Every structure is written in C-alpha cells, then in structure tokens.
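User: Second chain of the day. Same drill as before.
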Amino acid sequence: MAATRLIKAGSTNQEVTAAIKGVCDDYEVTPMQGVLSHKIKKHLIDGNEVIINHETPEQRVDDWEFAPGDVIALDVYVSTGDGMGREADIRTMVYKREMDM
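Assistant: Same format as last time:
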C-alpha cells in the first residue's frame, strides 16, 4: 500500500523502491532481486521505464518521474531468505507477442 501511494505525478521510481525496502525491513523480509515493475502503454507491457524491486550494484535502473495518466504494473515479490530466486525442476514459461508480426 505504501508503494502504491507514491505512484503519482511528481514522485520518482526510486521513491517507490525505497518504500518497498522500508516495508520489507518492517516485516523482516527481503525484496526479491531481478523483479521489475513496468510502465504500461498500449500494446506494450514491458517498456523501458521501470521500478526495480531491489536495487543492487550490478542491477540498477534509470531514474524517472511519474506523469499524470501513467499506468504502472506494480510487481512486489519478497522472500524470507536472502532475496535470490532458486531453480526448480518445473520450468516457468512466459510468452510474449512479437509486435512486428
């Protein structure tokens, strides 16, 4: 809820990342690394303007400011462990439409 309140005109993506970290610290969990929330446009669900769930020195995103009318798909994943995913026997498949076709 804290992160969604910050998604408004004038706020930045880094403020949302900091809010996610703050709530995770309160609940003694760790945000998952590699999870990105995207600004959505018509026919595009994974644009270049993103909110990172957990920023590391290896994985950083550009700062940007929310504008009126922005639509954001906010994905927040947390872990009681170290925040790293692990491989399993079952493989997850995600399919995406090719826009040039």
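The radius of gyration is 15 Å.

User: Great, on to the next one.
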